[in-house]
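Continuing the series of single-chain predictions for the mutant panel. This is the parent chain; the variants come on the following pages.
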Amino acid sequence: RRERQRFVDKNGRCNVQHGNLGGETSRYLSDLFTTLVDLKWRWNLLIFLLTYTVAWLVMASMWWGIAYLRGDLHQAHGDTYSPCVANVYNFPSAFLFFIETEATIGYGHRYITERCPEGIVLFLFQSLLGSVVDAFLIGCMFIKMSQPKKRAETLMFSRAAVISQRDAKLCLMFRVGNLRNSHMVSAQIRCKLIKSRQTPEGEFLPLDQCELDVGFGTGADQLFLVSPLTICHEINSESPFFCLSQRSLRSEQFEIVVILEGIVETTGMTCQARTSYTEDEVLWGHRFLPVMSLEDGFFRVDYSQFHATFEVPTPPYSAKE
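Parent structure:
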């Protein structure tokens, strides 16, 4: 069977694009900080560089303009003449004075004199504007660098899901694992079945979402993820797979979206990892190979067998049958 369009890729990326927003694009500007954080890194760096470059050139031009209007550019700076900014004779020197002031370097060669009220006002404006720009852009870059998206790449899901019997009950199972030694605090897992259906009134729902119970009532969805775990969905009368058999599985079209959420222990930020399984990735009559073994004083996890399955005797009938 050819690969069909997925709602969520295996790496967790959602294949949804928003188009024809019309006048609603102004909502992105109302939340400018989040918009900048959501941009790709190349656009963030470009905006970062352009903002500082333009701000530096504009403020340096204002200092040069004050010196030009006062006639300081063509006067000798000494005891007989007190300029607005000492030792500012051209635009490069005005630009250097602005950088020294903005970066609080203060070499001492260029400084504002007390006989320049317009320079004092501009200095106060520069200090306030610089603080706002620094807080906005540096805060945006810090938030983007500290996002826990990369942490989700060290959370693993099995390539396939399996259907077999556990405790004499037909179950849908898949495996999750954590590659890092740091734990996921308050880890919780949820599953959504995405499948098209038609209501009794004739309405067609192309991406209808249905919850798959993976232990919400018993607390089994709260994970202690220090070693690979097998997540189990019991196929009973309340399950949407109640009528699913080995034969009907070949003709079904559905997608199971798995969402794993937790708090990163080292940063305290919430992390979310996603994956999905289509009907082609559900193996009937299979079980996962064990990956845990007891060594000298510790348990060892063999991740080379993380995705491996083997066949087990499983009735080809549905849970209803």
